[in-house]
Design a protein that fits this description.
The chain has about 575 residues and is an alpha+beta fold. Helices cover about 30% and strands about 20% of the residues. It starts with a helix and ends in a 10-residue tail after the last helix.
């Protein structure tokens, strides 16, 4: 009996080991194409970049829809500082996807004590003031940044790299005045200390004159500073002044011309690294193409964001929505010069009125909720499926739209419009580059703890109460957006004229005026959204619509859904009434 038992156990162990070996080999084999299809990239961010001559007011713009779902959404203002000679700056291991329990403290306090890499770099004598969320967004010199994750080949990942994307953007905010300065600094820091923790990333980098796409990737886990080789590979391309570019989590830079320094910048290993890896043959007939070399994959879910944004901006081009994303132009000239309001609308888009309309699918429910289809990729019976992924998502942390303008002092010409939470049900509020304080309610909050002191929860509150009867509730939200965003946009010229007048008298008075205005406006909007959430709860309570004239309206299901009920549940007609 014992012999049989041991024979049985031994055979089982052999089978287990064989199965384990098969899994290891299979997983390694599965990775060889190095095609990234799951994870944050699929649900990731959208960034729009507007050249100064493509905007109605001469401003450059960058945007960032921070589509994360579980990231820290708090904001912070960092003041300008002077530093003694010989001071150093600590580099922290800040993951863009990490959150902290508020019982422990605020993220930006905790990273200083709990997330040290051990690396310290020489500090500069003076660092600039700036505002930031997950990344650096805008500084006192109107340097502005947006973001979109783009991924990289699997073997390029370097979790041990000491420079991460968040720190690169914060250091750029601290030290740079122009987009070119920021790109060169971030690239050189990645090269020297090793870019890691994050995968391939795109940053939209702007100043009052120029907008650039900057894409950076790690160079593998075996890189060391002692190798003498760059610890990152990066490339940057400038958007023509009269055009607009869009990044939907896919690399946008194609063929590059490094001799054209007005439009291109890159790391010294931009081509040689690919040659060493066998990904590019310089003796071949094809020119070097950045995205086809370092990101040679096709998304396995529907990603028509690039087409949709271009089609909204330049419908006269009549672009084919079925064109692969890597075959679209790098940027397009809009049919008309765009405003901030235009960009707001694009960031709230769900393909309405197109063949990809998210509001009329089964997954949208009977009341046309356009972003209920989450996750966008799922598996069923061993097969993978995907919904169309719109620009606006149901798990957005915040959306930013920056403006940088050369015709005003930096503190007035630069500003960021911020919409916390889901963009279609949120409200954009302005924060000028020169203000000295961010509302306290923007600095606190957490996904797992309801908090009426947190501004983000006011917008979550409204969004939650839109879900049951979305097609009805969203009309009330649009009215509130038209009021509060409309007033802020309409008053922008007046506010800036007043600030300019004060600036001539004393720049500090202009900063104080703008700070008071932004804090007061944000407070009023947050109060309005808490009330809007309460009103939606009452109006759509118990599945009815309760009107202000004390009527109760029963809202039925659309005919399409009634037919689905009858078919799916095999319902029989009721007996006729006698």
């Amino acid at each position: 009996m014992k012999l049989k038992r041991w024979t049985y156990m031994g055979g089982t162990l052999v089978l287990f080991l064989a199965f384990f070996l098969f899994l290891v080999l299979y997983s390694e084999k599965a990775e060889t194409p190095q095609v990234e299809v799951l994870g944050p990239v699929e649900g990731g961010c959208t960034s729009i970049m507007v050249g100064k001559d493509a905007s109605a007011d001469g401003s450059t713009m960058t945007t960032h829809s921070c589509d994360c779902a579980v990231c820290d959404f708090t904001w912070r203002h960092v003041s300008a500082q002077d530093h003694p000679k010989g001071a150093t700056r600590k580099i922290r291991a800040i993951s863009q996807y990490e959150t902290f329990d508020p019982k422990k403290g605020l993220k930006w306090d905790l990273v200083n004590t709990e997330k040290q890499t051990g690396l310290e770099i020489p500090q500069v004598s003076h660092t600039y003031a700036y505002h930031h969320g997950m990344f650096g967004v805008i500084n006192e010199h109107q340097l502005a940044i947006g973001e979109s994750s783009v991924g990289c080949r699997a073997e390029m990942r370097n979790p041990g790299g000491l420079m991460n994307l968040t720190e690169l953007t914060l250091i750029a905010m601290e030290r740079c005045k122009t987009a070119r300065e920021a790109i060169k600094l971030m690239g050189s820091l990645g090269e020297k200390y090793g870019y890691g923790l994050d995968s391939g990333e795109m940053l939209s980098v702007a100043d009052p004159q120029e907008v650039w796409i900057f894409e950076i990737m790690p160079v593998g886990p075996l890189w060391t500073p002692e190798s003498g080789k760059p610890g990152a590979v990066w490339c940057a391309q400038r958007i023509p002044d009269d055009e607009i570019a869009v990044c939907p989590n896919e690399n946008q830079i194609g063929e590059i011309d490094l001799e054209d320094t007005d439009y291109f910048m890159a790391s010294p290993n931009v081509i040689s690294y690919a040659v060493d890896k066998g990904w590019y043959d310089p003796q071949g007939s094809k020119p070097f193409n950045w995205k086809k070399t370092y990101a040679p994959w096709f998304k396995t879910y529907e990603n028509h964001r690039l087409w949709r944004a271009f089609d909204l901006l330049a419908p006269s081009l009549n672009l084919d929505p079925k064109t692969p994303n890597d075959e679209y132009p790098f940027s397009v000239k809009p049919d008309k010069k765009v405003t901030v309001a235009d960009i707001m609308r694009i960031h709230r888009d769900h393909y309405e009125g197109t063949i990809y309309d998210c509001t009329n699918k089964l997954v949208s429910g009977p009341y046309n909720h356009p972003i209920a289809n989450n996750p966008y990729v799922f598996e069923l019976d061993g097969k993978r499926y995907g919904f169309n992924r719109p620009i606006a998502l149901g798990h957005c942390e915040y959306t930013t739209i920056t403006q940088s303008r050369a015709n005003m002092p930096d503190g007035i010409g630069g500003l960021v419009w911020v919409a916390l939470g889901v963009t279609p049900t949120s409200c954009f509020v302005p924060f000028y580059a020169g203000i000295t304080e961010i509302p306290h309610s923007f600095t606190i909050g957490d996904h797992w703890n309801f908090n009426r002191d947190s501004a983000r929860w006011a917008f979550n509150y409204v969004d939650f109460h839109c879900i049951p009867k979305y097609c009805y509730a969203i009309e009330d939200v649009k009215k509130a957006q038209a009021k509060w965003e409309g007033e802020a946009l309409a008053r922008q010229h007046e506010i800036e004229e007043k600030a300019m007048s004060l600036y001539k008298e004393d720049p500090d008075k202009a900063a104080e005026f703008l700070t008071d205005y932004c804090l007061d406006n944000a407070r009023k909007v947050i109060d309005a959204w808490w009330k809007l959430g309460d009103d939606l709860l009452v109006k759509h309570n118990e599945g009815y619509i309760y009107t202000q004239d004390r009527k109760q309206i029963q809202v039925g299901y659309p005919e399409k859904w009634l037919r689905l009920f009858v078919e799916h549940d095999n319902m029989k007609p009721l007996p006729e009434r006698r």
